[in-house]
Amino acid sequence: MIFKNSSTFLSCIVFLLLPSLITSQTCQKTCGSIPIKYPFGTGPGCGDPRFQPYVICNNQQLSFKTHTACYPVTSIEYNYQVMYISDPSMSTCACTQPSKGFSLDANAPFSFHDDTVFALLDCSTDSSPIYKFNGGVNSTFPMCDSQGAPVCSLLYSCQAISRLNLPISTCCVYTPVDLGPAFEMDLEKLHCSSYSALYGFSNQELNPQAWKYGVALKYKFNFNNDYPDMCASCEKSNGVCGYGGPYSSFVCNCPSGFNTTNDCFLGSSWNNSFRIVPWQTGILLINALGWFIFLALM
């Protein structure tokens, strides 16, 4: 193709560059098979900045990160503000394996759901601090739950655990879960070889194979637990809530890839008044300029 003059060449360059100016949405709405909504995000600048360091999306795998490990996120119940995670190193009715334990970061915006049950397995009744409360030594960890004996007996009846021939007394259950001021369950210090965590019995309390193994964590949007109005408007306009700037201020990431300070609507707002947000104004001006050059040079 031979251009007759530099102006024609320039107009063609403008049209070639126009598609690249409209980029894809930076903040994605899914990570693998898990839908992503506020307060979580798929990368820096997405979701709520308080949650971004702890819930990460890497290679389409959503994970919960603490100072000791990364745990796969299995599902999120947004209506109830509960996130479910699994620990590949913990024991279940189908598999028994050594584990280092579980921990939460003290400043993380999460707490244990009331339905979460921890069972410490194969603990030393002679040296573990969880068995020393009768000897006058105070433990920073909660005492074994006297109501947890059925959980222990059923877990120890599982084929994978029964092969170890462990007495039920070496199992310690406590709920509601409290990891003490350090927010950490260090099985080495507790002299326990493994642990099991569950958050539901699936209406089959006597069948440990059907239990829901994993850890259920609660989260709050903010101190008052109010869903931000700006975020709700952003999501209704097909945007994704995020943050930006030196103060991590709210931004709405739109399908075009541009950020706004309100929502992604072009034209009608909630009260049917006409409105064009700044990034859309820029796109319209670029398109208008391109058409002007093209028509002027025809």
TrEMBL record:
Q: Which reactions is this enzyme annotated as catalysing? A: L-threonyl-[protein] + ATP = O-phospho-L-threonyl-[protein] + ADP + H(+); L-seryl-[protein] + ATP = O-phospho-L-seryl-[protein] + ADP + H(+)
Please state the span of the N-terminal signal peptide per the UniProt entry. Answer: 1-24
Q: Which GO terms describe its molecular function?
A: polysaccharide binding; protein serine/threonine kinase activity
Q: Pfam families from the entry?
A: GUB_WAK_bind (PF13947), WAK_assoc (PF14380)
Q: Which PROSITE patterns match?
A: EGF_2
Localization terms from the record: Membrane
Q: What is this protein called?
A: non-specific serine/threonine protein kinase
